[in-house]
Amino acid sequence: MLLMSDFSASDPRAVLSVSPQTWLTEGDPVTLICEVNGSSTGWTFSWFTDTGSSDSRYRYDLLSDSSRGAGGNYTVSSAALKHTGVYVCRAKRGEPAYNTTISNKQPLWVTGVSPPVSLIVRPNRTQHFTSDSLSLSCEDQSNSTGWTVRRYTDSWEKLEDCSSSVSGSQTGSTCTISPTITHDTGVYWCESESGEKYHPVNITVHPDVILESPVHPVTEGETLTLRCLDRHTTPPNLRADFYKDGSLIQSQTTEMIISTVSKSHEGFYSCKHRERGESPKSWISVTASHSGSQISVLHTLSSVLAVSPYLLVTVVLIFKCCRMRAASVEEQEPAI
Fold it and tell me: What whole-number distance in Å separates Cα of residue 97 and Cα of residue 44?
């Protein structure tokens, strides 16, 4: 167990980053990179998870599979739901060992392909206006009430219950925030009584222009529709420019439609109006379509079955031709 109070503010500080991104789908690879600015040699590294705060002190647990080795990289070859969380790192060198201060916090969010519980957001979008009402509910097939809506806010960098919001309250497995404020921006998820985290959703609260985008991951082959909304206009739809990962992809339209989504469409999206302003960015996650794979296999199988009679006839004709040629050769050979 590591406590923030174990370090002095004047000590060298480790810097933690992530590659390729903080939002992952089950099975994706990810690497946590720990560095010490201005001093790159002779360090060994350890990685920790943020377990929350106790008595105003942040607590960190050492990862059981932390390599503690040189190089500064902690790699997960296949992300799982258990890897969702907030990470920090520390470096040390010399004998006796000299430790850096704890690094910045680096969250990782892993979206499950078939999570046992869904975080239902009402209104059904990832971005919301300030001074609105927001409801988040953990719902599973058994209607269990053993779930708590938890969050990690950008403003405070703290793991806490959703009800910790200035205007938040939790009833059963449902959290209500009314009215919303910009400090409610963060990642929300459903947490079991044993501490397992499921279905993280990035929620953004913004005063003016927002992007209407789906809460849940989009499946390959489905249709994705994005709209730009302004709280001060009626109707709220704006004719705006749409961006993906900072690059303009569609100009001056009230909505952007991608009719057949593929993995290449995954990324950060936003919209911008020349006078009203720009929305925050929202991450659009794309999951593989199992039914699409099955359809592809069935299509291939049906194609083979469709041409198989012709293949069979061809094989039979070739076989008969070879038999006839062999018989002809035998007749022409002289007897000995």
Answer: 10
